[in-house]
Amino acid sequence: MNKKNILILLLFSLVMLVSFRxxxxxxxxxxxxxxxxxxxxxxxxxxxxxxYEDIQSNHQPIVYFSSAKLQQLLDPPxxxxxxxxxxxxxxxxxxxxxxxxLWRFKAIGLIFIIFFEWLKYYLFGNLWLMESFAVYPAxxxxxxxxxxxxxxxxxxxxxxxxxxxxxxGIIFSLVPLWPWLALTWLVLWxxxxxxxxxxxxxxxxxxxxxxxxxxxxxxxxxxxxxxNNFVYAxxxxxxxxxPLDYLKMIFFxxxxxxxxxxxxxxxxxxxxxxxxxxxxxxxxxxxxYPFLLLAxxxxxxxxxxxxxxxxxxxxxxLMIFTFAFSLKFLPKYFILGFSLWxxxxxxxxxxxxxxQTDPNYEYYVNYSMFDDLNFSLKTxxxxxxGMRAAVLTNEVLVQWQTPxxxxxxxxxxxxxxxxxxxxxxxxxxxxxxxxxxxxxxxxGAMEQELVKAKYQPLYREGxxxxxxxxxxLIEKITPEQWEILASRRFFSENYFK
Length: 497
Fold this sequence. Notes:
Elements: H1 3-25, H2 33-46, H3 62-74, H4 79-119, H5 130-150, H6 157-171, H7 178-192, H8 196-214, H9 218-237, H10 243-250, H11 263-281, H12 289-294, H13 306-309, H14 313-326, H15 332-346, H16 359-366, H17 368-380, E1 388-391, E2 405-406, H18 421-431, E3 441-443, H19 448-454, E4 455-460, E5 463-470, H20 471-474, H21 479-486, E6 490-491
Helix pairs in contact: 1-4, 2-3, 3-4, 4-5, 4-14, 5-6, 5-7, 5-14, 6-8, 11-14, 11-15
């Protein structure tokens, strides 16, 4: 191993060690319904419920299947360990992929890793999300395509099959990346022609094996994830309300120059400037812009982070790789200038490695109430595994690994889902005021009439919680169960009379 490779390996190790420290301190920060949806539904599938058949979801299956296997392997005893183990596993996933990208792309890969592994925390790249799963295989595929296109580096059959694995991971992780994926493979097809058949056949085989192994119905998957998304979710949630929104999307990276106060926007300005300057020396690089355009189909600000900006994660990864790839077309003095610009931004106190967080405190703030309510469902429902719970707020961890099953096919209740006839009928029948057998538990008081007529809230520390127990069931709670509930400061209304 020469000195250059040793230096690259040392820098890679340093970057990942710092990223690991950040991930540990942030392992219980920023609770998010999408991640919690993935973990909760995965837990339900481990109990025998079928994804897309018994459980409604418009998300792709890889996040559920992988979470289910992780929970089977590690068997987390509580929500604290559940979330922490998923965050740690996501770091391991990023570490493995980063090592692969470094091995394949050398210095270009290292530049990508340096920036992405520290910036991903602004966009929930450490959470168990579809975007987090899709970004790494997308970057690898993109990099192989660019090197074949610009550097005339041949793609051997073995790597072409590996690119099929990458594409499989993208397809079953993140639907919005499909147009970008189609364009990428169009370029590859033009360049390698007949060899593309091996990749297509591999992808078909992988898809078939996936549905066989998981037991998921491809028909139900298509209805829930593809049909319902495009017919109901996209029209309802579309961010495009006029020509200005389309212009914002098309010229998204240019907007970074007009948000100088936001650190993420400053980094995007760095990456995009490096790319634009490289286009001056290598005009062909302008052909990359349509790929960046298709990787971001949202109307967002370059300064958007966390809940507002997490959809940007794959785009950011591809933008960083584009920047790293473009640098080799620049004179050395330009590279020096961009390096100094990057170092100045890295010194900003807002960088994730400067954050001071306490995981125990973060757990208390973000998850302790869910854990307590989860505990109460386990205590009350332990004698009857057929009890139903409707978690009507975006706090689905309340139902994780309890003896209860969802009251409807929905685990998370989004307004657009009411437009789907099947789900609307299921919802109305379950929560109508004269229902002869409503759910045993309701969390969240959205159905006020039903709740007032047939439920009592659990009390905690003298205040009503949003967990409502059906009247007949609360009367059956034994003194022993109340004693257990009291250990988490839960009481009934009668306690105060």
